């Protein structure tokens, strides 16, 4: 495993040979959220796939932006992929926010994408970020200048977020620098976007004006999630005519965390089905 500030975005590399796979995480996430899947794809000797775990803008170790834009995020992803492997096409995998970014990247730079896997998100306007406002407020309210350690942060955060899974996921963004603490997620940008209400750019999906992507697309959906509905199929097929829905029963929105073996095997099948690059 190797880490590098490749291109404009921070990336982590897993694997040394084989087809190239890039992973894009969701809101509040980081590229390392896909580490388990990447290691499974790369195989025990690292030669089955070369995986790139990308920190999206405003997340992880990547630069922050002044205004959110799917086109801007997609441009940064495209530049990063080109810098990491000039001339090589990718299997591009994206979950939630990263799924939307992956779709926009694929539509605007189809030359970079051999195949696309979208995980539990649809190319539509979800209305607002109300479901995330609690998380943003809780993170912003944590008194960073008073923290004595990570255990203290855990205890304080537990008062506003009782779910240990959610709490751990959000607190992965908390980083210590000697005696000071900071958030790696650009909370001010997220808060401004959430304040837009129905005009949220993150909740929306842009009209790129690009032609449909004619390559193979797998649409992984959590059976218990609710993020993707039957009526979303028409819009998905309009943009991605070869989109093939795959429902993973018994899991919610975090398909790759709740069913890593299923996701890993699905990606292996996708790679086996691809023609030579």
Automatic annotation (TrEMBL):
<protein>
    <submittedName>
        <fullName>Alpha/beta fold hydrolase</fullName>
    </submittedName>
</protein>
<feature type="domain" description="AB hydrolase-1">
    <location>
        <begin position="19"/>
        <end position="260"/>
    </location>
</feature>
<keyword id="KW-0378">Hydrolase</keyword>
<dbReference type="InterPro" id="IPR029058">
    <property type="entry name" value="AB_hydrolase_fold"/>
</dbReference>
<dbReference type="InterPro" id="IPR000073">
    <property type="entry name" value="AB_hydrolase_1"/>
</dbReference>
<dbReference type="GO" id="GO:0016787">
    <property type="term" value="F:hydrolase activity"/>
</dbReference>
<dbReference type="Pfam" id="PF00561">
    <property type="entry name" value="Abhydrolase_1"/>
</dbReference>
């Amino acid at each position: 495993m190797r880490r590098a500030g490749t291109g404009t975005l921070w990336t982590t590399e897993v694997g040394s040979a084989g087809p190239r796979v890039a992973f894009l995480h969701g809101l509040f996430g980081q590229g390392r959220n896909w580490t388990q899947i990447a290691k499974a794809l790369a195989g025990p000797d690292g030669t089955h796939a070369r995986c790139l775990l990308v920190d999206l803008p405003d997340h992880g170790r990547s630069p922050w932006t002044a205004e959110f834009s799917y086109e801007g995020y997609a441009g940064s992803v495209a530049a990063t992929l080109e810098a990491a492997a000039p001339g090589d096409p990718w299997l591009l995998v994206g979950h939630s926010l990263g799924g939307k970014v992956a779709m926009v990247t694929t539509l605007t730079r189809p030359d970079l994408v051999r195949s696309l896997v979208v995980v539990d998100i649809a190319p539509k306007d979800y209305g607002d970020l109300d479901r995330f406002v609690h998380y943003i407020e809780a993170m912003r309210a944590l008194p960073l200048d008073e923290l004595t350690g990570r255990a203290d942060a855990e205890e304080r955060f537990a008062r506003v977020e009782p779910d240990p899974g959610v709490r751990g996921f959000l607190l992965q963004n908390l980083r210590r620098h000697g005696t000071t603490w900071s958030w790696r997620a650009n909370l001010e940008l997220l808060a401004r976007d959430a304040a837009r209400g129905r005009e949220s750019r993150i909740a929306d999906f842009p009209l790129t004006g690009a032609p449909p992507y004619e390559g193979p697309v797998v649409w992984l959906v959590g059976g218990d999630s609710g993020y993707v509905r039957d009526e979303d199929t028409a819009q998905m097929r309009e943009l991605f005519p070869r989109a093939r829905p795959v429902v993973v029963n018994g899991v919610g929105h975090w398909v790759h965390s709740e069913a890593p073996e299923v996701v890993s095997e699905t990606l292996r099948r996708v790679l086996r089905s691809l023609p030579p690059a």
